[in-house]
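Milestone M4 deliverable, item 7.
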Amino acid sequence: MKEKSSQSGGRSHSDNGDEAVARKLAALAHPVRLRLLRHMATTKTCCVKDMVAEVGMAQSTVSQHLKMLVDAGLVGYRSERQRSCYHVNADALDELVNVVGQTLDYCCGKVCGSDSGGSCEIEGRQAGATTPPSGSKDM
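Output delivered:
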C-alpha cells in the first residue's frame, strides 16, 4: 500500500508562513547583506551611494543585494528624486526573531526532553517547549 506524500497539492496556513520565514533567512544568509542591514540600522535612511562606500562594491552589486532584502520584506525604500533611500523594517525583523526563537525553543524541547529539568545543552534555551512554532501569515 502506498503512503500519501506529505506534500499534497494544498498548502497549510503555516506552510506559507514557513516559506516567508525561509525567504527572510535566505536574504540574511550572505555576509554583504548582513553588513548592509547593520549599516542601515545605524541611520534612519541610507542611500545606495552611502552603502556602496560602506561595502566597497559596485553600485549594481549593492543594488542586487538590497533588492533581495526588500523582496524578503526586511528593508523598505522610497524614491527621492533620482535616488533611492533604504531603511530597516524593524517590525519584520522582530517577527523573524520571534519565529526563530520559537523554533529553537521547540527543537530544544525535543532534543533535551522534559526530563532534563529545564536545562538544555543549547546555550540560552529552555527545554520543554511543546508547541510547534508556526510561521506568520504576515511575514
